[in-house]
Amino acid sequence: MKVMSLSLSARLFGVLLLGLPVGQTAAAAPAANVSAAAVAAGPARPGPVQARLNQRVFDRVWDEVRRGYYDPTLHGVDWRAARAQFRPQALAAPDERSLYRVVNAMLDLLDDGHAAASPPAAVRRQEAQFARRAVMGLTLMRGATPDDWTVERIRPGSPAEAAGVQIGWALNSVDGRPWGPDVETFDGRPVHLVLTDETGQRREATVTPRVMEAVQPFVADTSRPGVLVLRVEQFDKGLGPWMGSALEGLPPDVDVILDLRGNPGGRLWEAESVLTCFLPRGQAWATRTGRTGRAVVLRAAGDCGDRRDPLANPVAVLVDQGSRSAAELTPAALQEARRGIVVGERTGGSVLIAQETNLPDGGRLTLSRADFVTSGGTRLEKRGVTPDVAAPRTVIQRRNGDDPTLEAAIAALRASDRAENAGRSSGL
After folding, report:
1. Number of other CB atoms surrounding residue 47 within 10 Å
2. For residue 389, what are the β-bridge partners?
3. What pLDDT is recorded for position 185?
4. Which pLDDT score is estimated for 180?
5. d(C-alpha 53, C-alpha 50), whole Å
6. What is the spatial distance between Cα 354 and Cα 358, in angstroms, rounded to a whole number?
7. Crossing angle of helices 96-107/48-68, nearest 10°?
8. How many CB atoms lie within 10 A of CB 263?
9. Which residues partner with 169 through β-bridges?
10. Predicted confidence (pLDDT) per residue in 57-76, tens digit
11. Rounded to 5 degrees, what are φ and ψ at 232?
């Protein structure tokens, strides 16, 4: 079964929130080493049920790429040779983790940050991402290999914070096992973490997951005078109407900041809806081209709630290396239209339009189905968005709660406001 809503999310297993994938691109590990290690790590042979699932999952993934990948040349990859290399390893995989490492090693050949297969446990966590549930309170970023993870965020008030785990530490193991998307945690069941801090010192912590209220995907922050900060965790269903409501009745002297840092992307329709809140309705902002070569112009025609006219207030967009897909095309469109100031760090450069397909075992394949360029003809894939104002945020600043990126955006907007007011007063 295919999930037909187009998505712009990046690799589903790259960032995990308490083991929950939220879509960050990760560097590919060497294919042969990954698959060989995965098979060698488990029992010699899979059971009969696992063996049948292995075959069905692998064949579905291979065939979807062959028939549906946006580039009919598959980036020059000999896909039949890939099948001959990886299928025997996939069929011999003793468990879910081993199978998906083999499948993803094959997908890595495409050199595409969107092409990834998520195991069933990761899919379950993704679907429960914004639900009330048992959590440790960690967001993890994958590095160069499937076993290389770094703590990206600590949720305030969480068990991980209470245990003293710090942003920037490397997670080596959970209960003696390397972390992976298939690792599950349960309310009240302690887990033992082994980590390495930034000095190379070994750190150990026992964390007991507990039920916490849902993390909100969209948050409006009015705590700063004259500034409305709209924090968007991902481009999830309902974002457009929510943003339209948040902007309704906003005084013209209030600056708006869209915080898309660490945002992995999401639904294409919601990206269109966000842009419709700020651009004239019907304005072209991008072009997508599918496997057949037919180009489709994307226009600001989404759902911004009850708003019929674009917001006139000054706008800034915060981005970083974790901003992917829809969180890249949105600032790029506003930047090209001279409608917003982009502040922060260069984005990840993962902006192909992807589609999700459910796999036979409950896993999920994300695959690029269309190419994407901005209205100005810029291809952001592998390139990313360059901010107008460079304002990186260090690990130490994040630990201390300091936010120079946000402060730089506020300063840039105020400078722009002063320049505009000076222009009016001088009659320019």
Report:
1. 11
2. 343
3. 84
4. 80
5. 5
6. 13
7. 20
8. 30
9. none
10. 999 999 999 999 999 999 99
11. -120, 115
